[in-house]
Amino acid sequence: MIGQDHIRRITQVLSGGAVTAVSDVDHGRAQKVAAALPGAKVFQQGEDLIRSADVDAVLVTSSAATHERYVLEAIAQRKPVFCEKPLATTTQACARIVSAEEAAGVSLVQVGFMRRYDHSYRALKGAIDEQTVGAPLIIHCAHRNPSVPDSYLTESAVVDTAVHEIDCVRWLLGEEIVATRVFKPRRTRKASAHLQDPLIVMLETASGVIVDVEVSVNIVYGYDIRCEVVCESGTVALGEAAGVAYRRANTWGGQVPASWIDRFVRAYDTEIQEWIDDVTRGTGVSGPTAWDGYAATAVCSSGVQALASGERVEVLLLPQPKLYGSGKGVAK
Ligand SMILES: NC(=O)c1ccc[n+]([C@@H]2O[C@H](COP(=O)([O-])OP(=O)(O)OC[C@H]3O[C@@H](n4cnc5c(N)ncnc54)[C@H](O)[C@@H]3O)[C@@H](O)[C@H]2O)c1
């Protein structure tokens, strides 16, 4: 899904990039996709694509459990690699990628946390950085999906859904999340029998900011992403979605996006355009780093333990390598 969407944006929307090769474990699918890309080669093995002289930079959009091997191969070939989130499915696998990149001594890896490229989130970060209403104290987030497939598990609420808020909080505040806790509110009757929905995921940051993330994945009415930062002398929040607002028949209101694609399509465009520009300039990646991917997976792992135990679970991170060197470790 997302791989073909990135091909569409590189070939039809963005400038400066060309898709010269594709690979998928489903070879027939790769061939079908390549048939619509003039001159593109098809490789049976992802590693052979990465090694190919026709390939300057790599996007990894395969299933999450396969990310590690392709990212490690790209680092071995010293080629820039954009990896869809998650960087890898375990904290240990992410740590192996961080070590390999550190050993290579050059920043090659970017992780697909696309909300950092959303216009509203960027404005929110600007307001926090400038302290327009003082220092942040509390953040209220909501991540609401209209529905999810039956294959979606309660753990997915942390690992696949709240992971975006986890990355955003680290980025907005420029500091690490040090502990998690998960609460289980009354279940909605709209959820599958096996699913605890909604959840409240609580995050604690190094400076003591407390974040509550409501995850509701059967909310019916639309795809709704909310984030309000409570500061010392005011609050700052994501605005309501773009588009028109109505006043009619004694009511007022606007539209709620139908899906994450509607809500974040421009963010994906900006994300991949900036990555292409960085790769073309050869100045190293400027987006979310392997360290950001590692930290997000470590927080998710703490959240999964907190979900099972009902307890507060600390996030344990390795010492941060100098390569990621802002001191606080969170890429701007
Ligand atoms: N940033 C975001 O908001 C966002 C959105 C959607 C998906 N994603 C991420 O992108 C990744 C792909 O998600 P998707 O929804 O496109 O999944 P998908 O199932 O539609 O596509 C995955 C593809 O990977 C292929 N594949 C599986 N194992 C492989 C292997 N060993 N080598 C090569 N190809 C292999 C499959 O055949 C399939 O074509 C996931 O990690 C997902 O979390 C991120």
Can you describe what's shown?
The protein has 332 residues and is α/β, with parallel strands linked by helices. It contains nine helices and 14 strands. Bound molecules: nicotinamide-adenine-dinucleotide.
Strand content: 15-25%
Small-molecule components bound: nicotinamide-adenine-dinucleotide
Helix content: 25-40%
Radius of gyration: 20 Å
Give, in spatial order, the strands making up the sheet with the most strands: 11-10-6-9-8-7-14
Shape: globular
Q: Give the low-pLDDT segments.
A: none
Keywords:
14 strands, binds nicotinamide-adenine-dinucleotide, seven-stranded mixed beta sheet, alpha/beta, 37% helix, three-stranded parallel beta sheet, globular, 332 residues
Helix-strand layout with pairing:
Blueprint: H1 2-13, E1 21-23, H2 27-35, E2 41-43, H3 46-51, E3 58-60, H4 67-76, E4 81-84, H5 91-104, E5 109-112, H6 119-129, E6 136-144, H7 156-173, E7 177-183, E8 199-205, E9 210-216, E10 224-231, E11 235-237, E12 245-248, E13 251-254, H8 260-281, H9 290-309, E14 313-314
Parallel strand pairs: 1-2, 3-4, 4-5, 6-9
Antiparallel strand pairs: 6-10, 7-8, 7-14, 8-9, 10-11, 12-13
The structure holds nicotinamide-adenine-dinucleotide.
What's this, in brief?
With 332 residues, this protein is α/β, with parallel strands linked by helices. The protein has helices at 2-13, 27-35, 46-51, 67-76, 91-104, 119-129, 156-173, 260-281, 290-309; strands at 21-23, 41-43, 58-60, 81-84, 109-112, 136-144, 177-183, 199-205, 210-216, 224-231, 235-237, 245-248, 251-254, 313-314.
